[in-house]
Specification:
- This protein has 425 residues and is α/β, with parallel strands linked by helices.
- It is 54% helix and 10% strand.
- It contains 19 helices and eight strands.
- The chain has a four-stranded parallel beta sheet with strand order 2-1-3-4, with helices on both faces. Strands 6-5-7-8 form a four-stranded parallel beta sheet, sandwiched between helices.
- Helix 9 links the parallel strand 3 and strand 4.
- The protein binds Double cubane cluster.
- The site of Double cubane cluster has 20 residues, from helix 7, helix 9 and helix 18.
Length: 425
């Protein structure tokens, strides 16, 4: 513990405030997760990871930094993490899910923007996130108005590298996107002072492909068999959230161990939900830790969440990079661009593949309903909900739309609406 405190002050964390924040987070985790019945044994690793989330993992990242490996904090799944991992470095998510930093953020940012951005910005101002403090630079992108303008302010406190992500997917947009990926790679080379080889980047891509495969395996195990649901949605969400912080090789191994156990549970018909529990899909904006409000509301009201169509969810792991026919660096950059352009974020216009995917997911999973979840003031997802719910209605799929921020105040109201929705399906 003393060593951790020493490291935290070396990276300029406000150690006392950080300790208070961590205690609050751990208490909330204990109350919401440890009280669940019949959890898989393999969740013990993830419970341990939670207890070391700003401890051992931070020590590992800073060890890499000492070896001049890159350390990159990101806010979006468009970050080409294959390149960072290929350089032997660490890539981690900084999206904020806590209300505790928002008041500080509002000293620099308007109140009426998305809480995910405000929460993360507040962590930087408070110096209470050891990941932010451990990053050589923060990866930013031009997906939404709130993000791209916040980078200009965040850059006053921490170096930010912005990638220009197009809002359409025409050939000329994709060409520019590929150039941005090349520029990102060059930026990593500048940070490390070392050229990256094709083999290194391919190795990084293999590692991340394996991680995405393991998450897809988890997604199938929890969602595709209506007879047996071997893990709660809340636990599966937490596992997915930790994928944005943990070392990718170790994490992949642990997710696969969890999947082995879940496969056995399916064989033995061990379900954590009663028969006929309504099975819901969540669609929409990312659910960053410690934002577990919706999952807690649904699963304490008699529903089960069987997947998240979100960037902390299916949108993150649904596609892999095809590396079978890569002969040179240019081929790899093209394949990375292809893979990233499959992401169906609401920042794109048009974004119809997202609707087709949702309808297919619903059918494959034989779900009973969906909740379209938008963070307050996220205009792209909020507006796109009209088109998504219209398609759902036409297909006869029950849907509840929830818009919320991180304050605990609407938790009761959300629960009431969820209960009414569950009764109606
Ligand atoms: S690929 S969803 S991670 S941009 S910050 S858009 S919630 S107003 S996070 Fe995102 Fe990349 Fe798209 Fe995924 Fe809305 Fe908030 Fe903006 Fe947000």
């Amino acid at each position: 513990v003393e060593e951790h405190r020493k490291l935290l002050s070396e990276i300029n964390v406000d150690v006392d405030r950080h300790a208070k924040m961590m205690n609050m987070g751990l208490e909330s985790y204990k109350a919401q997760f440890m009280s669940q019945k019949n959890r898989p044994e393999a969740m013990k690793y993830f419970d341990w990871f939670m207890s070391e989330i700003q401890g051992q993992r931070i020590a590992e990242i800073n060890e890499l930094r000492k070896q001049k490996k890159p350390s990159v904090g990101a806010f979006c799944i468009f970050v080409p993490e294959e390149i960072i991992v290929g350089a032997g470095g660490a890539c981690f998510g900084l999206c904020g899910g806590s209300p505790a930093t928002i008041a500080d953020a509002e000293t620099e940012l308007p109140r009426n923007i998305c809480p995910l951005i405000k929460s993360a910005h507040g962590f930087k101002l408070q110096r209470t996130c050891a990941y932010t403090q451990s990053s050589d630079f923060i990866y930013g992108e031009t997906t939404c108005e709130a993000k791209k303008k916040t980078w200009e302010i965040l850059n006053k406190h921490h170096p930010v590298h912005v990638m220009n992500i197009p809002h359409m997917k025409r050939d000329k947009d994709l060409k520019m996107w590929k150039e941005e990926i090349i520029e990102f790679k060059e930026h990593i080379e500048e940070v490390t002072g070392k050229k990256l080889s094709l083999e290194e980047m391919l190795e990084g891509t293999r590692i991340i492909n394996e991680k995405r495969k393991a998450l897809l395996r988890l997604d199938s195990l929890r969602g595709l068999n209506p007879e047996v649901m071997p893990i709660t949605g809340k636990d599966a969400l937490f596992v997915t959230q930790m994928g944005f912080l943990d070392d990718p090789k170790r994490y992949t191994q642990k997710v696969n161990e969890l999947c082995d156990e879940l496969e056995k549970r399916v064989e033995d018909k061990i379900s954590v939900f009663e028969k006929d529990t309504p099975r819901l899909m969540i669609l929409g904006t990312p659910i960053a830790p410690p934002n577990w409000k919706l999952h807690t509301a649904v699963e304490s009201s008699g529903g089960a969440i069987i997947n998240e169509e979100s960037c902390i969810g299916h949108r993150y792991y649904k596609d892999n990079v095809d590396i079978d026919n890569i002969k040179n660096e240019d081929d790899l950059m093209s394949e990375l661009m292809k893979r990233y352009s499959e992401v169906d974020c609401a920042c794109f216009t048009p974004n119809t593949p997202r609707i087709d995917k949702i309808l297919k997911m619903y059918k494959d999973r034989q779900a009973d309903g969906v909740i379209y979840y938008t963070l307050s003031f996220c205009h792209t997802y909020n507006i796109e909900s009209f088109l998504v719910t219209e398609a759902l209605e036409a297909a006869g799929i029950p849907c509840l739309v929830i818009e919320s921020d991180y304050s605990p105040e609407d938790a009761g109201q959300i629960k009431t609406r969820v209960e009414a929705f569950l009764e109606s399906i």
